[in-house]
Structure formats: structure tokens, C-alpha cells
Amino acid sequence: MTRLPLLAGAALLALASHASATSFVATTDTLGGLIANASESTSDISSSFDDDKVVLAARDDAASFVASAGSIRGARLEAALRHIRTQAPQIQADDQQLARAILAL
Predict the structure, then answer these.
(1) Measured between alpha carbons, how far is 63 from 70 in angstroms, rounded to an integer?
(2) What is the pTM of this model?
């Protein structure tokens, strides 16, 4: 009787490790795609706004925004996002990508 719980536990462990490995692969694939998109946006933004006072003033707010996964939105970051979208409407990036680009300046 003690073998049945042991075998059941081993089977659950095997299933859990397979699911964990599969989700890890899916997560890294997703993150790789996001990083590629973010790096394109970052290069467009950094070449255009690397000496812009409004954008540079938003670096601390951008760091808080990125670290909080978008929960903390400072006034300087909001001003910088509006400024970037006004000055470069061709840049199609979400707020998270723009905040990361600001941090890369």
C-alpha cells in the first residue's frame, strides 16, 4: 500500500516538471519577441530624443513605471509620453515600450 502513494507522487512530479519546462519555453519565446519589438522602438526613440529635456526628465518616473509593471504613472512620464507621440507619431509603441526606451537613453 505504501507503493501506491509513492508512485502517484512520482507521476505528479513528472507531469509537473514537463508542464514547467513547456511553460518556460513558451515564456522565453514570448519574451524574445517582446524584446525584439522593444529594441526596435528603443532605437527609434533613442536616436530622436537622446537630448530632449522633457524626455530625460522622465527617467525616474519611467523607472518606477517599468518596475511597477505600469501601476505607477508619474506626471513627468505622462508628459514625456505625450511629447514623444506628438513629435514622432510614426512610432507605434505602447507605454511600457516607451518607458523602457526612455530608460535606455
Answers:
(1) 10
(2) 0.57
